[in-house]
Every structure is written in C-alpha cells, then in structure tokens.
C-alpha cells in the first residue's frame, strides 16, 4: 500500500501554494483576455451600429430622391407608359399604382415593387381598380 505524505509536510504546503498561485495567475490572465475581448466586441458593435445608421440614412435619401423624381406616368414595375388599353394605371392596396398588365400577370396576385405589400385583383371586377386620374395629369 502506498504511503501518504505526512499531513503537515512543509514541502507539500509550498507546492500546493505554488500550484494555487499559478492557477490564480492563469485565472487573472484569462479574465484580462475576456475583458479585452468584451471591449473589442463592444467597439465593433458600436462601429457597426454607426455604419448601419449611415447606410440607413443614405438609403432614405436615395428613396426620397427617387420618389421625388419618379415619373407618375409610368408603371413602377415595368416602367412602361400608362395607356387606356393594356397598361391602364391600377391602384394597389397600399396606395401605389402599377399598370394593369403587371398587376394581373400572376393571376391577380401582385406585390408592390415600392413597399412589397401584396394586393389581389379578381378578374371579374377589373375596372374597379383603375386609376385614370393619373392619365388626366399626363395630358
């Protein structure tokens, strides 16, 4: 049977103290690395948030410019000029307008290219959705 060291051996106490000290140093080192990693992550998130807000602002400016300069006499989807036959201006549920041909190309299920809202158009009442006021403005 192996013999165990005497309980109050000063040499074992020193070795255990060194091992504990070494573990404490390692733990402190890991804590510092963790804190540094957290700091860098927070900085990166802040930079990403700043970049995201810049991109959102740019997108809003581009959309405002596009909306201000959009020609109301053309379809938002195909960009063809409205007429009274095939490309009749058709009002969407969201308030935007596209031509009749685009609105009915997927069996009356249509997604607005501006805001992505979905609209449906039953074949039995096609004239109900016409928006001929746009044609009046075209002159």
Short description:
The chain is mainly α.
Break the fold down into its secondary structure elements and pairings.
Blueprint lengths: L9 H59 L20 E3 L5 E3 H4 L5 E3 L6 E3 L12 H6 L1
GO molecular function: zinc ion binding
Organism: Caenorhabditis tropicalis
Keywords: Metal-binding, Zinc, Zinc-finger
Can you tell me the number of structural domains?
2
Strands across the major sheet, in which order? 1-2
Order of helices and strands: HEEHEEH
Number of helices: 3
Basic shape:
rod-shaped
Distance between the termini: 110 Å
Summed over residues and divided by their number, the pLDDT gives a mean of: 76
Biggest beta sheet summary: 2 strands, antiparallel
Helix content: 40-55%
Biased composition (Basic and acidic residues): 18-49
Region (Disordered): 1-49
Protein name: RING-type domain-containing protein
Domain RING-type: 75-116
